UniProtKB/TrEMBL annotation:
The species this protein was found in: Mesorhizobium album
Pfam families (alphabetical): DUF736
UniProt-recorded name of the protein: DUF736 family protein
Domain of life, per lineage: Bacteria
Length: 56
């Protein structure tokens, strides 16, 4: 199979604590991305928190 280039749909800029901004065509929100402990192989590697909501 050939290699395909993936389109960039947004950016995340952050500081050393994981806090930053997610920017896409429709989003511009302050968020935090932090690694998390995994209790099984299907658990997420990171947690995203934006506006007080936790997205796994």
């Amino acid at each position: 199979m050939g290699r395909f280039a993936m389109a960039q749909i947004g950016t995340f800029t952050r500081d050393e604590n994981g806090a930053g901004t997610i920017k896409t065509l429709t989003l511009n929100v302050k968020a935090t991305i932090k690694s998390c402990d995994r209790d099984n192989d299907k658990a997420p590697d990171y947690r995203v928190t934006a506006n007080g909501v936790d997205y796994a």
